Amino acid sequence: MSTPSWTLDVFVNLSSALTGVSTEQLKPAIDPIGIAKQYFETLNSNIDRAELDRLGVTFQATSDPNKAAEVILQDPAMGGVARSIMKLWLLGSWYNPKQPTNAVNVVSSQAYKESLVWKIMQSHPMGYSMFPFGYWAKNPPPLEQFIQPASTASKP
Amino acid sequence: MSCDQPSQSASTSSDSKKATTIQSASSKTAALSSTIPADVKASPPFSLESLQGDFDQLSWQTFVAINWPAHANGLPDESKKPGQAKDNNTVWETWRESSSIFLAGGIAPAPWGSSFEPPSSLPQECKDLLRSGNRLLTQVGKTPGILTEATQPFNTGPLIDQNGRYAHFEILVNQSMFQTIFNQKLYSKKAQEEVKSVVFECGDSKEAKIGAIMVKAAWKHLSLSEIEGGRFHAVKAVIYTPPSQEPLIEEKWEVATVGLVGLHIVHKTKSSPQWIWSTFEQVDNCPTDGQGTPHTSYNFYNKNQPAAAINTPPKRPWNPNKIEPEDRRPQIVRMLPIDAATQKLNASWQAKMREINPESVWQYYELVSTQWPTQPAKDCDVEASAPTNMSGTPAPQFLGNTTLESYIQGKVPNVSSSCIECHLNAVTTSSTFSDFTYLLQRAQ
User: Fold this and answer.
1) Do B374 and A32 touch (CB under 8 A)?
2) Summary mean pLDDT of chain B
3) Domain count of chain B?
C-alpha cells in the first residue's frame, strides 16, 4: 500500500524545511491551539488536491529536506504554493499563489497571535503580549529562546 | 518538566529528560482523601486529552480535600467525610482571607494560626457578629485599578442572582502562600518596592509538599426555600457594604445565609509553575449556550426571559444593599460547554458524594475544567525560566467560571477569559511581576 502523499505530517515537515523552524515547534506533541491543522486545512481548501499531492510526492522524493524544499521553490507551479505556505506560518495570513502580494485573509485570531514573524522579531503581536508588565524596559531574550531551528536530520 | 509530559517549547526542550517527581500510579482510580495532591499524577502515553483527564482528576481530589470537614485549627477531621452530615465546615474556609493579610498602613498581619480578628475599620456591632463565628463578606466600593472581590467579573459589573441579590466574593490563601507573603513582607507597599521578584512555592509530590494555593469563592444570598432545598454548601456570613459617596451607598451590614456558587482553586506545582487552575460551580448556576434549559430554575438565568441579552452586566447605578428588580438581573449563560470527559468525571465524583450521604450538598457541584500549562516553565521562577512563553501555552485555551468571569466568556485571545493569560499580567504595587496573583496589589 502506498504512503499518502499529502498528509498533515508531510505538510508540517515541508513547512519546517521551508521556514527553518523545527517540526516540534510548528506542531507540538501536546498542542491545545492546533495552528498546523488550521494552516493545513486552509491550504487544502484553497489549492487543488492534485497540486498538493504533487507537492507531497516531490518533497518526499528527496532525502534531504532542504534540497527538496529548494526543488519545490524553483518549480514554476509549486514555488508559488510553497511561498504561500511560508507566508501562512510567518504572517498567519493566506496569500493566493497567483496574486502573491495581497493577503486574502488572516486565518484566525490564533493565527495572528501565533505568527512566527513576532518570534523572529523577538517581539510580540500588537494587542497581545506573552511578556509581563514592564518587559519594554529590558532587552528581549535571545532569538534562540524564541525559535527552535529545524534539524537537518529531521527528514520524515 | 516533572509530569513526564513531552516538553514543547524551544526554551524548555531540554527539560524532557528532567527527573520526574510525579508518581506513575493511575490517576483514574482516585479515592476519597483529605490529602491535597501535591502535584498532578500522569502516566504515558501522553496526549492532550489524557493529560486533561489527569489534571481534571487532580481538581476533584483537591476539591474534596479542601472541602473536607475541618477541625478548628484548619486540619481535616479524619473521623468525618465531606457531606456526611449533608454539609460541613471546610478546610479552605479556615485559610487566610485577603482582608486579614493586607492591612491599613501595611502593618504586619497576625501570624498563621492566630485567632480571627475582624478588620479594625469595621463598626463594633459588625465586629461582634464576626467574633461569634460568621464569615465576613465585603462588597468593596470604588477601588480603581484593583481587582477587588466586588469587581471580580472584571469591572464590567456585579453579578446579581434571580432573587435580585448581589453575589459576594472572597479570596483566601493557604499556609504556604501566606508564609511567603508574610516572610517577604509582601503585605506592605513599602516593602514591595525592594522586592526584585516574587516566587511562590511549588507543590512537589516527591517531598509531599503542598505549594501555594489560592481560592476564590463566589457566594449568593440564599432564600429560605434555597436553604431548605439543600443544594448549596451554606454558611452564615456578615455581608458588609462600606459607605460610598459616589455613587451614594449607605454603610450596611447584615447576617445572612449564603451558598457557595463558584470556587476557583489555584495550586502552584513543580509540574505547573504557571499554576493549575481548577474551577467549580454549583450545578444550578445557568444553562449552557445552545443546550436548552433543562433545570427547573437557575441561580443566574431567568427561563421566562429567553430573549434578554445574555452575559451583559446590569446598568449603573449599582447598590449591593438593594434587591434589584427582575429587569436588572443579568441573564448568565455558559458559553463554553463542559467537556464530555469532564462531565463523565463529574458524574463519577458526584456519585461518590451521594454514597457518603444521598443528601450531601457536595453532589451539586461540578468541575467546569482545569487550565494547565502545556509548555511549563523549567522551574518555579517562571519569569526567569520561561521568558519567551510565560503563559506556558495553556490548555484549555479559554476557561471561565460563570460566577467569577460572567461577562468575559468566549474564545477571543486576550479578551475572553483565560486564567493564566490574564494573571500573567499581575504585578505588585511596584510593577514587579507578582507570580500570577493580583492579590499583592492590595498592599497598603
Assistant:
1) yes
2) 89
3) 1
* Per-residue pLDDT at B36: 98
For B242-340, strand residue ranges (E) read 252-267, 276-282
Give the mean model confidence (pLDDT) for residues B392-408: 94
Residue B246 has what pLDDT? 76
Please tell me the distance from the alpha carbon of residue A30 to that of residue A26, in angstroms, as a whole number. 11
Average pLDDT in the B240-262 region?
Answer: 90
Are B425 and A29 within 8 A, CB to CB?
no
Q: Is B1 inside any structural domain?
A: no
Q: For residue B237, what is the enclosing H or E element?
A: strand B234-241
The ipTM value here is 0.91
pTM of the model: 0.92
Residue B257 burial by Cβ neighbours in a 10 Å radius (0-12, 13-18, 19+): middle
Please provide the average confidence, as pLDDT, over all residues in chain A: 93
DSSP conformation class of B399: -
The region of weakest confidence among A85-89, B138-142, B179-183, B345-349 is: B138-142
Residue B263 near residue B279 (C-beta atoms within 8 A): yes
Domain extent for B119: 8-442
Interface probe for B, chosen from A133, A136, A139 (most Cβ of B below 10 Å), is A133
- Residue B184, helix vs strand vs coil: coil
| Contacting A residues, span 14-33, partner chain B, CB-CB under 8 Å | 22, 24-25, 28-33
Answer whether residue B20 shows pLDDT above 70: no
Within-domain flag for B117: yes
With beta carbons under 8 A apart, name residues in chain B contacting A28: 8-9, 374-375, 393
B3 within domain boundaries: no
For A95-119, the three-class secondary structure string (H helix, E strand, C coil) is ECCCCCCCEEEECCHHHHHHCHHHH
The cell for B349 is 465524583
pLDDT recorded at residue B43: 86
Is B164 part of any domain? yes
**Spatial distance between the Cα atoms of B182 and B187, rounded to a whole number of angstroms:** 7
Q: Say how far apart CA B201 and CA A118 lie, in whole Å.
A: 32
Report CB contact under 8 Å: B414, A146.
no
Cross-chain residue pair A30–B396, CB shorter than 8 Å: no
pLDDT tens digits for B407-416?
999 988 888 8
Burial of A75 from C-beta contacts in 10 A (0-12 / 13-18 / 19+):
middle
Distance CA B291, CA B150 (A): 30
Which residues in chain A are closer than 8 Å to B413, comparing Cβ atoms? 109-110, 113, 128
Q: Which of B388, B419, B429, B438 is most worth mutating to test chain A (most A CB atoms within 10 A of its CB)?
A: B388
CA–CA separation, B3 and A30 (whole Å): 13
Under 8 Å CB pairs connecting chains A and B tally to 82
Question: A133 in contact with B at a CB cutoff of 8 Å?
Answer: yes
Q: At what angle do helices A78-91 and A49-61 cross, to 10 degrees?
A: 90
State pLDDT tens for residues B177-186: 999 999 999 9
